[in-house]
Write a structure and sequence with these properties.
Two copies of one chain form a homodimer. Chain A is mainly alpha-helical and 211 residues long. Chain A is 73% helix and 0% strand. Chain A is elongated, with a radius of gyration of 20 Å.
């Protein structure tokens, strides 16, 4: 009974797509990100997040039904951001390799400016329920298809070496791009825009080939 | 009192360097790897590992003092394997870019044959105590210096493009190599040797440059 009431309240607060309505919701997600990043999702409790927000746990349950909601919304928010990168570049009339350069550059810049969110994304996605994990995984596959498609196009026109399976090469591209979340240290390393440009150079040369 | 006795017994069983003596110890580490991989280190208990081995928890404490010992020995074992790759290639008289190719090829082949161990390595190293984490991190830096050194050599001789900081480029190389542990599926993907050769091609071209 109590659970169903909490659920109803949470649903009232959320929009049609299950996301929290804006206003103080970005504060809630920022607090969840901070707690999940520092303690790990499994060890973090709703109480920890309420403490971070300086509110009562009961108030937090106005926004959510369970801890997993916060993880799902966080991952979905990151995906919404990078989906807009994909959509914009996909709709442009750049040649395939320049699309790949822009995509890599903007993804790496996003990653190096959102290190905690990306760490949560790559560490914790498997903690989602099966349905929600499927939803996130399918969004990820859109990116894999996009990059593999650009590599295939560039191979077909001879702009890139005919060096094997585009989906395999796309995995190496993603490795260089994604791993940034593990090693990048703001202040110690070059600014995001420069790291992003260097990564795009590396990746393009790997795809184009040297001989 | 009881704890100190367990510690003494564990030390008797271990060799001078704190590793477990061989014989059934590889079974213990295999069981720990299986449990840490499937449950995650934080959620796994010594009891889970004893269950996996079909022995009493007390018997397992003949080998270890605490759960963290198993994680440390696992990570150290992986490092010993890849250190021998580094040492062998470092001592060879191949030119720098061929050293980099061999290094990449053998690391990726190792990763794709040891997916669970590598997943534990990259997910859980931060769970170690500060001293042990420092030890593992310093071994990792040897690899970073080795790869950055090869890139610097190849840049100096003009074999690679003079394309910026070798340590930065080394991070992109490691990304392509390491990320294999996240996407590689035996059976679905090409055999380890072919994926490793393709990754080495990609990385070499990224370092050499296309123009």
């Amino acid at each position: 009974m109590a659970k169903s009431t909490a659920k109803q309240r949470a649903e009232q607060r959320r929009g049609e797509n299950g996301e929290p309505t804006k206003r103080r919701d970005s504060e809630v997600l920022d607090a969840a990100a901070k707690v999940f990043y520092s303690r790990g999702y499994a060890a973090a409790s709703v109480q920890d997040i309420a403490d971070e927000l300086n509110i009562l746990k009961g108030s937090l349950y106005h926004y959510i039904e369970k801890k997993e909601d916060l993880l799902f919304w966080l991952l979905k928010e990151s995906h919404d951001d990078v989906e807009s990168i994909l959509a914009e570049i996909g709709a442009s009339d750049l040649p395939p390799l320049e699309k790949l350069r822009e995509y890599t550059r903007r993804q790496v810049e996003y990653t190096s400016r959102n290190l905690e969110r990306m760490a949560i994304y790559y560490r914790e996605a498997t903690q989602l329920s099966a349905d929600r994990h499927r939803e996130i995984a399918s969004k990820r596959r859109d990116h894999e298809r996009f990059v593999a498609g650009l590599i295939a196009e560039a191979q077909a026109t001879g702009e890139a070496k005919d060096g094997g399976d585009p989906a395999l090469i796309a995995n190496f591209v993603f490795g260089s791009m994604i791993w940034v979340y593990r090693w990048y240290k703001p202040g110690r390393d070059l600014p995001p825009a420069e790291v992003a440009a260097a990564c795009a150079d590396f990746v393009l040369d790997g795809v184009i080939g040297s001989r």
